[in-house]
Amino acid sequence: MNAPLQDLQREAQTLAQSVTAAYADTPLMEVGTRLKELIEGVAAAVSASGSDASLVQTLATVRGIRRALPETFGDRFQFDSLLIQAIIKEWSALGARFSGFIVPRYGPGWGFYKIPMPSEDDKTAHTIRVLSFPGVDRLGDVDLSDYAWLLHELAHDAFYGSRYFVDNFGKRLIDRLRVLKLRSTADVGRAAARAADHIAALERYWTPKLNQQDWAHEVAVDVAALWALGAPLTMQFRRLIDREDVNVCVATDQHPPYVIRAQALAQAADYLGWRDEAWALQENIRMRTAESPNGLLVYGDAEMLKAVVEESLQNCELLRIPRMTKERLEIVQLIDEPKTDIPFGSAMIQLGGLQRSMLTAGEYRSWMESLLRSAL
Ligand SMILES: [Zn+2]
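Above are the sequence and the zinc ion SMILES. Below is the predicted complex in structure-token form.
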């Protein structure tokens, strides 16, 4: 064996040992074993053939996977894992399907992504799903009143299970764009160019993709989170829109501005019978947009939002995600804590949201601390 290849083999050995050690006694133990076996398999084949290209590639892949996987497995990891499992159990009770293995990771913000695991034969390849939480792996960073986002992220996972939304909203989008094109046929010169640009932008932002990286899915899973959580979701959105440090009009290719998301949510809240909440959310939107008018708001086409809301609600029904009703939320409000332990699950997030709206910041913090002490 030549010297560079020997170095590479040593590197492979070190990496194989370190993945096993990093995930020993964690929920990712099996993942660590698989990665180790993968490295060892490729390393053995390379020794026999004398060419190192595949080993270089494998080491890079394994390092990439490690960077995307959870890095810590502390108390908060345990708390968030239990919460995720409890909600998946609630949602599965009526038949909703999930990928099962979803692990928390800590970083700058909320997010959901999939890591495909490499395998020697592609047939057995499986995917790890990671739910990213804001903050670090420390119980003090848990803020349940912000956890409505957890349901948004889990709804992304549920929506991967069906093509319903992509197909049905996709059709309605095409219809709507056709109407807008017809309406603009009489435009000439600059007006015609402006109309064409506008329609092209609507198509780019709203076309639903299977990878869910589009405005339509972001709005649709907000609506699904409202379906599952009820009023506490609109409360969280109102707090967000009221925050002066949050620019409610900023957008990316993947995320529509918060005001457009809030408009859709107000509509969905109305459909679902949360009338007061819908009205209050509308008020927040009205005040914020009055102080900062923004050009992006024209992309919140009312017909399109209506279609996203309706198709998302229909999808929640088809996916059998349990719907939160006023009656069920009233039962949650009756949980007599601290006498009764608050069960892991969406009730915990709902109570967090309700407490946040009733208590001062300091009182809320101590409520959270005692809840975390009794939960773990
Ligand atoms: Zn999202």
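The longest helix spans residues 3-23.
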